[in-house]
Amino acid sequence: MRPSARIPSILAGLVLAAGGALVVAPAASASVQQCQQYVVSHGKSSTADVAQACYQGAIGNQTSCVASLKAAGISTDVSNGACRAAH
User: Fold this and answer.
1) 7-24: per-residue pLDDT in tens?
2) Domain of life of the organism in this record (predicted)?
3) Which domain holds residue 37?
4) Mean pLDDT score of the chain, rounded to an integer?
């Protein structure tokens, strides 16, 4: 393939990849909010640490989500439920 033909192909691939990331982002945001609401519904405040932990849960890293919530002072039971809500 000629270099002049590769450049448009690469640019098209990048545009498609960026568009896919934009489509996925709102779902992760909604999941983070559900996780935070779960924490708040159990009598805890939603801090920046809670939001970061919930983001980890939303992207599928349940272990990090639970560990981070526990480090933020959230009980194990609430942490597990919140991370399930995020995913």
Assistant:
1) 666 656 555 555 544 444
2) Bacteria
3) 27-86
4) 82
Q: How far apart are CA 4 and CA 81, in angstroms?
A: 53
Residue 71 included in any domain: yes
Q: Which residues contact 35 (CB under 8 A, 6 or more apart)?
A: 50, 53, 54, 57, 58, 65, 82, 83, 85, 86
- Give the E-state strand segments of the chain in sequence order: none
Q: Which pTM does this prediction carry?
A: 0.67
Residue 50 predicted with pLDDT over 60:
yes
CA atoms of 5 and 24, how far apart (whole Å): 30
Q: Is residue 18 part of a domain?
A: no
